[in-house]
Amino acid sequence: MRRRVLMLFAVAGVLLAGLGTVAAMTAVDSNRNLDVLLDKTGPMRVAGQELYSAYLDQETGVRGFALSRSAKNLQPYERGVAAEKELLVRIDQLNGPRGRAAIRTGLQRVRQLADRWRADVANPVIAAGASGSSLDEAANDSRFNALRTAVDTLQADILALRDEAAAAARRTASVLVVLEIVAAVILAVVGGLMLLLLDRLVSRPIAELARQVRRVAGGDFERRIVSAGSPELVSLAGDVDGMRQRIASELSEVREARTQVLEANRQLEFKADELSRSNRDLEQFAYVASHDLQEPLRKVASFCQLLQRRYAGKLDERADQYIAFAVDGAQRMQRLINDLLAFSRVGRLTTGFASVPLDRVLTEVRSQLESRGGDVSWSAMPTVEGEEPLLTTLFANLIGNSLKFRRPDVPPVVRVNAERDGDEWRINVRDNGIGIEREFADKVFVIFQRLHPREAYDGTGIGLAIAKKIVEYHGGRIWLDLDVDEGTSISFTLPVPA
């Protein structure tokens, strides 16, 4: 397409350049002819007329002097002679060195005849003075008529030059008109060819290509897109068809993925139903654990304690030991069930989130754990969104563990700090206790996971599991800091309120 358009414009440009060159040469010729008409022949004709009048003035002055013998009557003659010299020079200059030869010849003849008339007629009369002879009429008529004829011939030559220049100017004007017509025809032909070329190679193929693209956009993704226009459009059609193939391939993948997503959604709905059923079972279990299991367990514990109080020391030592084992087991079972119930209630029995100042929560926790001793302090704490009872349980478990797992003969010290990290608060609870080994970092948050025997430290091993569930329920995360020199450092995050 580009080559064809360039070729068309190149041919048109060459033709128009040729026409422009011819037009320029014709315009120069026309200007030259107009110069001859306006700047030469016109002034030359006027000078010729004035030259004729100058000779008449000379003849009239000589004739008057011959009759009156008065020097005053020679003034027309003298003005005519001066005008003659000036006019002959002007005509010669207007004709120029490359001017018409006939005019130069005519000027030479006029000078010769004028000099002869003055020599044969005018000068003798003027030389004779007041007592001179009369004018020789025969010689005057012969010489002056010849001079008059020469001036008329000069005027005729000037007129002929004017006519030739006018005819040439008319011819150049006609040539310019013809050139303009030819240029207009060339432009019209080029424009028509350009429109035809655009229609055949661009407009129609683009319309057809657009029609095919609309059909593909309408859902006919298997229809192949082709073009019969210019090579550029053929290449564009190939690119569009490649895009169609890619879209069709990806659409097939999308449909397959959609089928998989629908199947996954179906499975998720099934899993959600199972989870809902499991939650109902868990709630039922919680109800049973809190009522049906607690009641017989309380009876067992009560009667065991009654036996321990009433028959302590009355039976043998082994019987007292067995009763103590039974009482301890019942109490531990009650604690396990209560802790399990507390773990299951996190996130299930909710009162809704509210603004909770952590300073108030820590004050409450310190008052609850005051009987355990130790130095518990904190820096400026933020206000977060959450459930205050759960956040109180969170800090109570973390600080309670710090106070429980103390080093012998070392007063426990617990420090709580908070700092903002982007869109969340990072809170750290650190103590100077016995610490946690690296290999147990992933086990401390597992439910009922104990790292020490019950004889060394009491508890069920569910405190950190409950803490992890509370933090995750509030949209945070919790972890054990390993890079500490002594003691235990546990960090967790809570979102910054919007």
From TrEMBL:
Highest taxon listed in the record's lineage: Bacteria
Domain Histidine kinase: 288-498
Coiled-coil intervals, chain numbering: 144-171, 247-274
Residue intervals of the HAMP domain: 200-252
Signal peptide range: 1-23
EC numbers for this chain: 2.7.13.3
A GO cellular component annotation in the UniProt record: plasma membrane
Residue ranges of the TM segments: 175-198
Keyword Hydrolase: no
Glycoprotein among keywords: no
Reactions this protein catalyses: ATP + protein L-histidine = ADP + protein N-phospho-L-histidine
A Pfam family: CHASE3
Keywords assigned: Coiled coil, Kinase, Membrane, Phosphoprotein, Signal, Transferase, Transmembrane, Transmembrane helix, Two-component regulatory system
Protein's cellular compartments: Cell membrane
Listed GO MF terms: phosphorelay sensor kinase activity
SMART domains cross-referenced by the UniProt entry: HAMP, HATPase_c, HisKA
Name under which the protein is recorded: histidine kinase
Organism for this UniProt entry: Paractinoplanes brasiliensis
